[in-house]
Design goal:
Helix 1 runs parallel beside helix 5. The chain has one domain. By secondary structure, it is mainly α.
Length: about 180
């Protein structure tokens, strides 16, 4: 039993490390966004073309990996639904799923590193400055509008609506006098 716990602990640590690396890389490079900001980064036509090709290649790889992941999950589901559970097969399928997820994380990181290598040192410095100014989520960051904490916008749910304007008559519960 101890070896299974150690194995699980190792997996958790590896997943956490992979996730941390991916988050660090996201702050460094995003080829799609770099292309959109080609003028601000002073990218050459060749760099734009390299970034586009890199992005397309990455998307193809991700489509394949995500399809493999979906198939592996479906196969695990099949194994788990059988009347007689094959524990070894189920665990093997879970290992396969974990390996595919790890491959996805690694490809994402490799993609971001490759994109960064296309930029000159000066462009990398501009990119880093732009990322700091935009914040961690860049231009996709939510504003401070109503419902921002709930993620639902103005349809905030019962009891969360702003108070009615002063002087407006809103019918309340009937008086029981």
């Amino acid at each position: 039993m101890i070896s299974k716990e150690n194995n699980m602990a190792r997996r958790i640590v590896l997943i956490a490390m992979s996730f941390s690396l991916v988050l660090a890389a996201v702050a460094v490079a995003n080829p799609g966004r770099m292309i959109a900001m080609a003028d601000k980064l002073s990218l050459t036509d060749q760099q734009v073309e390299q970034l586009r090709n890199l992005k397309i290649q990455y998307q193809k790889e991700m489509i394949r990996l995500r399809a493999d992941l979906q198939l592996a999950r479906l196969e695990l589901k099949e194994v788990m639904m059988k009347a007689r559970l094959d524990e070894k097969a189920a665990l093997a399928m879970q290992d396969r799923i974990s390996n595919i997820k790890s491959s996805i994380d690694r490809k994402r990181l490799e993609h971001m590193i490759a994109a960064r290598k296309i930029l000159t040192e000066e462009q990398q410095a501009k990119w880093k400055k732009m990322r700091r100014e935009d914040g961690p989520r860049g231009r996709h960051q939510r504003g401070d509008g109503p419902g921002r904490l709930m993620g639902r916008g103005p349809c905030m749910g019962p009891g969360m609506a702003p108070p009615p304007p002063e002087g407006s008559e809103i019918p309340g519960p009937p008086d029981n006098d």
